[in-house]
Specification:
Number of helices: 8
Strand content: under 5%
Structural class: mainly alpha
Number of strands: 0
Helix content: over 70%
Radius of gyration: 20 Å
Distance between the termini: 39 Å
């Protein structure tokens, strides 16, 4: 039983991060439209990179409290400080204040921004070039991967 508890503690906080992809895509496309509207460049790689880098900011700001709680729940000795996510959040508020939830925010951004830029720019370029699920099916690409 103890082995299982060590493996799953903090996982409920990690499940709350499922929406990060949605935030990334919404902010990326919105920022891209804004940047294209104020720039004379069209279909520009620097604008796509800038939009992707900026789209990582709201994701980091919204998910950093969850990352902090998840990390603390995973790294504590079994039941040493808190049993639930709520206890962990109260502990952070009491000891560090509300700003404690954003401890490590810059490091989190520097870790996630490169990944975000690469992923979203590649996704955008593939989307613009017309590659989609139907195109791949028509070319029997899936059959060659099996």
């Amino acid at each position: 039983k103890q082995w299982y508890q060590r493996r799953v503690r903090g996982s409920s906080a990690a499940l709350k991060m499922v929406g990060t992809t949605t935030i990334h895509l919404l902010t990326y496309t919105s920022l891209q439209h804004i940047l294209y509207s104020v720039s004379p460049l069209r279909d520009s790689l620097p604008i796509s990179c800038c939009a992707a880098a900026l789209s990582a900011l709201p994701v980091v700001l919204l998910t950093n409290p969850l990352d902090l709680i998840t990390t603390r729940m995973y790294n504590q000795k079994l039941g040493a400080h808190y049993q639930t996510i709520r206890q962990c959040a109260q502990f952070v508020i009491e000891r560090e204040g509300w700003r404690g939830f954003w401890k490590g925010c810059v490091a989190n951004y520097l870790r996630s921004a490169p990944h975000t830029v690469i992923t979203l720019v590649i996704w955008d370029r593939l989307k613009r070039s017309g590659y989609d699920h139907q195109t791949l099916q028509d070319q029997d690409v899936y059959r060659t991967w099996k």
